[in-house]
Please model this.
Amino acid sequence: MLRCMTQLDTEVRGTDFDRTTLPAPVPGRPGEFAVQLDPGWSSLVGVHGGYLCAIAVRGAGALDPDRMVRTLTTSFLRTAQVGPATLSVREVRRGRSITTMVTDLTQDGRLLTTSRLTLLTDAMATDWFPPPAFVRLAPPTGGVSIDLTTHVHQPHLVLGDRWLTGAFSIRTSGGGLAVEHGVLAEQDGTLVAESFQTRLTAKD
Model:
């Protein structure tokens, strides 16, 4: 969950996800973080987009640990590769209850992703399932992410040992683009989070 990403010293201490999404503050450069893109999150095409989103959430949480990420929209501009990268986080506006932030992830001087995040005072793993387009392609073909928006509906959910159910579908596809809708829910059907993702499914 996004909340776990921002509370790295308590709830998810010692996990691989904690370690591989950890942004390290760059001394003397407020809002700038050094990150190491881990090979464990490689996809068929570069580094997995959901993993890059998680790094953006961790950076925003490090800049404002008292607020929780509730929405995240990311544009994937270039393919990320395993290795060092830099995350820049800036606060666009801070109100009494809502903060808007923008993050940019760069590698070798090239902008990889740009994200807009909304944090509340009181962003869930919706992009680590195989793209639904995979079921119609043989052999498996990478579905390159263009945009991903995630909405968290239960930010205070504590799962414990319970599992979530996930369902991802594509109802609109044409001209090489597919729009995917994903939902994560508790086993009784209570909605936890949902995502909307545009994927490039064919080469130009």
User: Anything to note?
Assistant: The first strand starts at residue 24 and ends at 25.
